[in-house]
Structures are given as C-alpha cells and as structure tokens.
Design a protein that fits this description.
single chain, about 850 residues, alpha/beta, 8-stranded mixed beta sheet, 7-stranded mixed beta sheet, 28 strands
C-alpha cells in the first residue's frame, strides 16, 4: 500500500479567517480516463508483437486527428458547437493520444526483452561471458525445504547486460534486462551477510560486473527480463566498474543506519531499516509472515508514507491539513511558501537518492507528492487530478509498472484515501465519533476495502485484523520513521548520536513488530480465500454488501456492538467456544498427527496445556498453527527423530511463545547444516539439546514412552539419517503407540530382532515410517499388527507417498489407514471397548 493520508471533511465552521479551508465543488475527474486508458494499454501492449504494437500507436493518433479535424470543420462552417461537445472532443482526443503514447512506450520496453543476442542465446541455454550493470539491491531467496533438505540460499540481482560473449564468437554490445541467480552454496546462513553470500549482497546499484554464466529463458508471459543468468558465486563477484557517486552516498547512509541499529532488540533491528529505506535484509521469515498476515507489509516497503511523514514536518501533520494551509515547521521558522516548496523538492530528491531511484521508489515519490499537495493546500479537488497525472507519467516512464501488483496497491490505497476516506470520516463524525478517531478509522477502512481484493489474489487469504493492526501501528509509524531518518543522517558524522537516536526509534519500531506478531498469532487472524481474480471479484462484492449493511447498522448502536463482538469472537476464537462448535480438538485426545504437508509433526498429550512434540515438520507456521489449535503452551520435550528438513525446519514454530523444556535428537548429526541450524535455534531460545538413545524411559503426567531405536554406540543397520531415526513406544490412556520416524527396511528389520521387539507386538497405533513409502519391512508390520495406521504426507507430493502397496499391506493386517493428505490433522482418542478394555478412535480436523 502507499501513503497513509488522512484527508477529513472540511472543518472549521466557526470564525471565517485565513485558516479556514476553501469550499470546493465536485472532484475534477477529467484526467482519470486518460490515465486509466494509458495504464490498460501499457499492460496489454508489453508483450504484443511489433506489428500489433505499431497499430496500437498509429490508430489512436489517427482517430484523435480525425476527431479534432471534424470539430475544426464544424467551426469553419459556423455550425453551433456546444461547450460540452468541445470539452468532450478534447477529452476523447487526449485519451486517444495517451493511449498512443502508452502503446509506444510499452512497445519499446517490451521489445527490449525480445531483441538482441541475449534472448537468442537464452533459447540455446548457452554458456557466456557477460558484462552486466547492477540495477537494484541484491536480495536473498527465502529459505525453503526441498525434499528432505533445505534448498541452497541464492542471491537474486536485477541487472542489465551491456556486453555478451559466447565461446568462439566475438563480443556483442547490447542492453537487455536480466535476472542473475547467484548460487553461493550457502544454506540458510546464520546472518544475511555470512559466507560466500556477503560480497554479492554488498553490491551497490550501478556496479559493473564481469561474470561467466549459463543463460536460460525467462518465465513466459509477464517477466520484464530478457533472460535468467545462473552464476556460480562461490568465488565472489568480479567488478570491472564501481558504483556511481549518488549510489556510493546512498550505500554509506544505509550502511550507517544498519550499524546504528546493531544494538537494538532483534525485531527493532530488523524493522527500522525497512521502515526508513526499505532495507529488509534482516527481516526473518517469521516476522515477514506476521506482517503479511496483518496487512502491514506496506510498512516494510519504500512507500509514499515515508515521504509523507517527512513532508509533514515542513507542512504540518495530516490531522491539521483541513484546518490551516500550513502548520508545520516551515511557518514556525518563518520560511516562505516558495522556500518551503523548494525544501520539499530537496527532500524528494534526497528520498529518491537514499532509497534508490528504481521504479518502486519513483512510484513512492510520486504518490508522496500527492500527499504533499494535500498537506499544503488542504484541497481535495486538486488531488485526484494530481494522482491521475502521477499514474500517467509513471506508466509512460516505466510501462512495466502497469503489471505490478505493488503499483496497483499504491494507486488503490492513495485513491481510497483521497475519495472514500473523507466521506466515511464525515459520516462517522455525524454519528458522534470523535474527529481524530473518525479520520483514522475512515483512512484504514477505505484503504483496506479497495486493496483487500488484490491482496487476496496474492496471498489467497483475507486478513480480519488488518484494520485494527494498521490503526495500532499508525501511532508508532511517524515517530519511528522520523527518528530513523535522523539516525540515518547522523550516522556518517556522529555514530554515537545516531545510535542514541536509533535506540529511541527502536521503541516505536518494536511496538509495530509486536502489533504484527500479536495480530498474526490470533487464531482467526485471517480466512482462506480463492487466490484468483474471480475470488477478488467475489470479495469485492462481499465488501460492497458489507458496506451497505454497515451504513444501516450505524443507526443502531446495539447492532453495531453485536457485530463487533461477533467479529472479536471470530478473531480470538476462545477454545471452549471453538471446541463446542467444531469438536476440535476432541476432549480426550491422546495424540495428534498435525497436517504439515510433506513432513512429520506429532503432538502427545502431556497434561493441561502441555504436549510432547515429536518432529516439527517442514514449516514453522503449520506446526505453530496446529499447536495453537490444541492449546499447547508448554512443551516438556521436543523429540527430533532425525535432521532431515521435513522433520526439523519447523522448529521455530514450536519454540514460538511456548515454554520448552528441552530438545532430544538422534546421535547422527546429518545433514550437518540442518543439525547446526537446530542447535542455533535452540541456543537462541535458551533450550538445552540432548542426545537420545534406545533404552531411555521418560514420563510426563500420565504419558510415558520408551526409546527403542537407535541403539547406543551405533548399529551396522544405520546407513544414513533415516536409519538413525529415533523410534518410540508410547503409552497413554491405556493405548500403545509405535512411532517409527523415517526408518528404512534395514533398521526396521534390526528393530524387529532387538530385545525391545517383544513390547512392539500388537500395538494400537502405528505411525508409519517414511510417510508410507514403498520401503517397509513386512516382518515389522506383521509384528506390530496395528489397529490404526497413520501416515503423514503432503497432498499431490512428487514422491508418490503413500505407496499403494504399503497401504494394502497395512489393511491386510487389519489396520484402518488414515492419511493427512486426504483426512487433514488426525487425533487419536480413547474409546471404551465392549469387553471393558480401552479402544482406539480417530477424529479428523
């Protein structure tokens, strides 16, 4: 989203003086059709063939010429032409000319990704030596699980190829936008600038590099890149030209801000550079998810809000924009209006330089300029034309913005704040809402109403806490931004002063992070929604219906209170109420197999609010959501059966906000990088890590378990991480459960022959090894003879899990087979048997 501008209704019904805002007529919408037409034309023409693009340029020009010449002939023949007809003719002609200009600009930019040697070589997947110029800040890919390992972290760099040379051919000059994917071999480094990634991440825009790379075609249909260059980055970048002076200055300022924030708490240290200059290199995946869940991601991007807050220092806070022409520092210091405008321009230039002059920053500066006009004049009539002009100029400057979701969200948010928010604010004030609260509610609600359908397309989710979280964060956004910019300016000249100012800015920045984390932790923070444009239209229709109903509800305070209470219950979801309505979790659950996709995560009931966790799955969010649905706040022990990523990568979700007594692991620390990641996460949370071996017996409440594999001192059957999995025999509520981790047939056969085998016969529940793969030992399955077999696997996984043969073998033994890819989360419960013994049941979520 873009600038948060509060433009309330005209106030000041009292004395008529210079501070009273001017009365205005309806908004001037004449520039809106040309801007929208240019936007749509650019989006359609970017990937059009050259002939069609040329037609899109020539046809509107000819149509405009015919229209204007026809009007001229009417004037020459002295026929009566009304003022309205003349205005309409000019408007249509202007729209056609804007369409032609947008088609021409889009055609030229689109041709850049199709012409020249780079696309040709990419289609042949050629190896080349290229000279490129970096055009944007490098960024890391997010850590992700690939199979049972963490995928290597890559550095993504947007660049332009200036010269390309293939073996045996002469070098050719060109100018083609490309995306560099730099593989440094690092896997989730301990810090963003660790290992081989550090030199690549430190590259500044405008730096020239010479590199050897493999070319590949860019993704079809919408990419602004002519090709993808895959680079082996283990030896570091080879620079052949340094960055420009403005980029060096911006780099020093940004580095100074990062240094000044080093001593802050983790969230504030990560968030403050993002609030000020859009530097999100320290933002963890968990914090990023919290901001996405609460629709606060606009605070992490360079947006018009940053620019607006700075300009407010000169011109006055947004809340006063409707009461006086200028109430900021400028008039208090005796600075004239013309000088104030010059200072605003200087601020704009400095903002663009520090935050990088790429299209997203230019978009933010343009939207911030609209806010400048609002703050300076307090007039709504001139703001919509200003926004339309900004859209038109930006689309002509960079037609790729016409296909950018960020650009769409910026325009929608700014448009909502300029058109809907003032009307809604006035309506709320008529119903007795205090002016400041009315303005804040109207601004947040209007931006959310227009942006929510687009956000739903991107995330397939609708946030129910976005408005309250944005309202709570709004109070801290201005002080954090202003103090952050002061620290940025002070860092090059006085680092101690910058650190002191950054410490002060850390308080409001930390508040924003706490708001995001608290909102995202709510059980009903969001609801799933179809992530398509059909879903967006449906959400738009629901929003309109809700607004129509809301207008009527404003007349009935008691109904408003009831709806607010219902929404609060939907978001908070008190466990007794949820259990009554959904039946989840079952009151007598003994074990829950969480639905975490292609991975394992089990929870064993260990008393009120307590549970022993066996494996953490591949994703922190999935296991955290499962534990929250069960009300587990204390974890006496986390057992990690082995170190494959689909079992341990979600550990951060288990540790999040819970009291964890310890972590027990297998003795074979392979893969080594994932074992090291587990130890780092445990150390950061202050949780001890111990090794588990066969023969250990432990108890938590009425839950007890015995470790039956791996043997102490190793075993010949242990040929890799899977065979080193911790296997447990669990006793709870009169049931016996056998948990096999990812044991392969060699270890399964050894377990069936071990001294513990006599206790494994005839178990009630079997957690099937290795997600139900085809590699199972029939002897162990026959020995266990479970009544219920549970398989944790991901929907439509590429491994074919579970194997049909494994499922049939289990059913042949008389077991009921349940699987998370079809049945969701599964809860094992105890049921009274007909013969007085305890039976086993299963509940699905």
């Amino acid at each position: 989203m873009s600038a948060r501008i509060r433009v309330g209704p005209e106030a000041g019904a009292g004395r008529a003086d210079a501070s009273r805002p001017r009365q205005e007529g309806p908004a001037d919408l004449r520039l809106v059709p040309p801007a929208l037409a240019a936007w749509a034309t650019a989006a359609v023409t970017l990937h059009a063939p050259p002939g069609r693009a040329l037609t899109a340029v020539v046809a509107p020009v000819l149509a405009a010429a015919v229209l204007l010449s026809a009007r001229g002939r009417l004037l020459l023949t002295r026929r009566r032409v009304t003022q309205r007809a003349r205005v309409t003719a000019h408007a249509v002609a202007a729209t056609l000319l804007c369409v032609a200009a947008a088609a021409g600009a889009a055609g030229l930019h689109g041709a850049d990704v199709r012409r020249g040697p780079v696309p040709e070589l990419a289609r042949e997947y050629a190896r080349v030596v290229a000279e490129v110029e970096v055009t944007a800040d490098p960024r890391l890919t997010r850590p992700r699980v690939s199979g049972n390992r963490m995928a290597p972290v890559s550095v993504l760099i947007e660049a332009e190829v200036r010269r390309v040379e293939r073996a045996g051919a002469a070098a050719r000059k060109t100018r083609a936008p490309v995306l560099l994917i730099v593989d440094t071999g690092d896997r989730k480094p301990a810090a963003p600038a660790a290992g081989a990634t550090a030199p690549w991440l430190s590259l500044l825009p405008s730096t020239r590099l010479r590199l050897e790379a493999g070319l590949a075609p860019a993704r079809e249909g919408g990419d602004r890149f002519a090709a993808v260059l895959r680079v082996d980055g283990r030896d570091g970048p080879q620079a052949v030209g340094g960055p420009s002076a403005p980029q060096r200055l911006a780099g020093r300022l940004r580095a100074g801000l990062r240094e000044a924030t080093e001593g802050l708490p983790e969230d504030a240290r990560a968030l403050l550079p993002g609030l000020v200059v859009g530097d999100t290199s320290r933002v963890t995946p968990e914090l990023d998810r919290a901001f996405r869940e609460t629709d606060l991601t606009h605070t992490l991007a360079v947006s018009g809000a940053n620019f607006t807050i700075l300009l407010a220092l000169l011109l006055g806070p947004p809340g006063l924009a409707q009461r006086a022409e200028r109430r900021g520092l400028a008039p208090r210091l005796g600075i004239s209006l013309r000088t104030t405008a010059v200072l605003g321009g200087v601020l704009s230039l400095a903002f663009v330089v520090v935050c990088r002059p790429d299209p997203s920053v230019l978009r933010a500066a343009a939207c911030g300029s609209v806010a400048l006009l609002a703050l300076a004049t307090g007039r709504r009539r001139s703001l919509v034309p200003a926004l339309a002009t900004a859209v038109l100029l930006l689309v002509l400057y960079d037609p790729w913005l016409s296909r950018s979701y960020g650009f769409l969200l910026s325009v929608l948010a700014t448009g909502a704040l300029l058109t809907l928010a003032p009307r809604w604010s006035e309506a709320l004030r008529r119903h007795g809402v205090p002016p400041r609260i009315a303005e804040a509610l109207a601004a947040a609600g209007a931006a959310q109403a227009l942006c929510a359908p687009v956000v739903a397309v991107l995330s397939a989710r609708v946030s129910l806490v976005a408005v309250p979280c944005n309202l709570l964060a709004e109070a801290a956004l201005a002080p954090a931004t202003v103090l952050g910019f002061l620290a940025l300016a002070a860092a090059p000249v006085a680092m101690p002063l910058a650190e002191a100012v950054a410490w002060c800015a850390g308080w409001p920045a930390g508040w924003i992070a706490r708001v995001a984390r608290t909102g995202a932790a709510m059980p009903g923070a969001g609801v799933d929604w179809p992530g398509s444009w059909t879903g967006a239209v449906a959400l738009g229709a629901v929003t309109v219906a809700a607004l129509l109903v809301g207008r009527r509800l404003l007349r009935h305070p008691w109904w408003c209170a009831a709806c607010a209470l219902l929404l609060a219950l939907l978001v908070v979801q008190p466990r007794p109420l949820v259990r009554t309505i959904t039946g989840w979790p079952p009151p007598d659950w003994r074990m829950v197999m969480c639905d975490v996709g292609q991975g394992d995560a089990l929870v064993l009931a260990a008393g009120d609010g307590a549970g022993v966790v066996v494996d953490a799955g591949p994703d922190p969010e999935s296991v955290d959501r499962c534990l929250r649905s069960l009300g587990v706040t204390r974890v006496p022990l986390v057992v990690l059966t082995h170190f494959h990523a689909d079992h341990v990568a979600g550990l951060a979700g288990v540790l999040r906000g819970r009291e964890v007594g310890g972590i027990g692991t297998t003795g074979l620390e392979e893969p080594a990088d994932q074992a090291a990641a587990v130890r780092r996460a445990a150390a950061a949370a202050g949780v001890p890590v111990t090794r588990i071996v066969a023969g250990e017996r432990r108890r938590a409440g009425d839950l007890s378990w015995e470790v039956v594999w791996p043997p102490p001192g190793g075993h010949p059957a242990v040929e890799g991480p899977n065979d080193a999995s911790v296997a447990m025999l669990v006793r709870t509520g009169g049931l016996r459960l056998l948990l096999l981790g990812d044991l392969e047939p060699p270890a399964q056969r050894a377990l069936a022959r071990s001294p513990a085998a006599r206790d494994l016969a005839g178990v009630d529940v079997l957690k099937v090894a290795h997600h139900g793969s085809a590699y199972q030992d029939p002897g162990l399955v026959s020995l266990a003879a479970p009544r219920l077999a549970l398989i944790s696997t991901g929907e439509d996984n590429s491994y074919g899990h579970p194997a049909p043969g494994t499922v049939e073998a289990l059913r042949a033994q008389g077991a009921a087979v349940m699987r998370t890819d079809r049945d969701g989360a599964l809860a094992v419960v105890t049921e009274p048997g007909g013969d007085g013994e305890m039976g086993v049941g299963v509940a699905r979520h």
